[in-house]
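A reminder from the course coordinator: this example appears on the midterm review sheet, so study it carefully.

Given structure:
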């Protein structure tokens, strides 16, 4: 039986792994399909303390993983949890068809990209509709073409700025007339010569005049109701995230939107189960706060194990 199983391998999960590994608890990390989580889809992380010149998101993940492994963490790559049974001890997790038993579980399952919910968006995903500029921006189909980014937060600004490397022009479509992004990101974005903001507007359809290839987006100005079309080769959607917590619904306490609600510290309502990072944080959602919560969850789990060993 495992002493600690960590579900997720973003900043929160890997920090929990470093701390519990250093406590000689040999944690098992189930990475999920996307090792490193959303951090690896970001370009340069400029606000993680200790890296004055910024650091690549994937590099942070690799460094954290190696740091955890150095102290005895076991990393199970690509492992996707299928079901859980937290009704009593030991806690049971079914992963890739195998049963794993654990005394404690740290849920650090992160968040996924929010979708607009348009049928044409789903139809054209990976055919010009994407949720990650750093993953897809350099694809030949997007080079020297006009592109559209939708959203008004830091992610949308980051995506739009990143895409200026490849695109002939980037339209930033936002549903209000003011960006939600931090001042520095907003200023950098709006002052870029290749970026044109399209205010008070919502994407209502993605067009593929050439079959199975994005050729434009239809937008509606929500003040005038006027509909227009922007010709583009790609739609990059950056409108926030939804927590990856479906698996724990009805078992671990969560709010209406699925963010896990800790009872005290990082402890959940289920004995021996802790939570950290974006799956429980709707307020801060930073790499550094996820790491901090991962550390706290690890210390909580360690103290729990010490208390039941007495
Ligand atoms: P966010 O801050 O929640 O912003 C989401 C944006 O999408 C908002 O502008 C929102 O509009 C818009 N939106 C939401 N639902 C929409 C819909 N259905 N249709 C159209 N627009 C919609 O999300 P985020 O930008 O992904 O950032 C998440 C967190 O990560 C934040 O705390 C951010 O600071 C952080 N982050 C930091 C960095 C960095 O520092 N380098 C980079 C990326 C993200 P409204 O404004 O009208 O609500």
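Designed residues:
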């Amino acid at each position: 039986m495992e002493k600690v199983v960590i579900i997720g391998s973003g900043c929160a999960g890997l920090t929990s792994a470093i701390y519990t590994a250093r406590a000689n608890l040999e944690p098992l990390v189930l990475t999920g399909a996307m090792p490193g989580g959303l951090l690896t889809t970001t370009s340069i992380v400029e606000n993680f303390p200790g890296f004055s010149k910024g650091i690549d998101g994937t590099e942070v993940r690799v460094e954290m993983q190696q740091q955890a492994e150095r102290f005895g963490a076991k990393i199970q790559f690509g492992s996707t949890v299928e079901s859980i049974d937290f009704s009593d001890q030991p806690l049971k997790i079914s992963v890739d068809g195998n049963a794993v038993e654990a005394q404690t579980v740290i849920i650090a399952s992160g968040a996924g990209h929010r979708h607009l919910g348009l049928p044409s968006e789903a139809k054209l995903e990976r055919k010009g509709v994407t949720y990650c500029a750093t993953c897809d921006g350099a694809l030949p189909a997007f080079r020297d073409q006009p592109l559209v980014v939708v959203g008004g937060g830091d992610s949308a600004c980051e995506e739009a700025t990143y895409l200026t490397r490849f695109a002939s022009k980037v339209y930033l479509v936002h549903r209000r007339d003011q960006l939600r992004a931090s001042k520095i990101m907003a200023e950098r974005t709006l002052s870029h010569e290749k970026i044109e903001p399209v205010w008070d507007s919502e994407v209502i359809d993605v067009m593929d005049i050439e079959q199975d290839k994005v050729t434009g987006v239809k937008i509606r100005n929500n003040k005038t109701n006027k509909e227009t079309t922007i010709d583009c080769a790609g739609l990059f959607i950056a409108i926030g995230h939804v927590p990856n917590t479906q698996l724990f619904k009805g078992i671990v306490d969560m709010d209406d939107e699925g963010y896990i609600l800790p009872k005290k510290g990082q402890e959940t309502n289920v004995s021996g189960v802790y939570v950290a990072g974006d799956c429980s944080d709707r307020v801060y959602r930073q790499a550094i706060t996820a790491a901090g919560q991962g550390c706290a969850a690890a210390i909580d789990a360690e103290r729990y194990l010490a208390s039941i060993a007495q």
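Residues 46-47, 114, 116, 150-156, 158, 175-176, 180, 202, 238-241, 285 surround NAP (CB under 6 Å). The CA atoms of residues 84 and 93 lie 4 Å apart.
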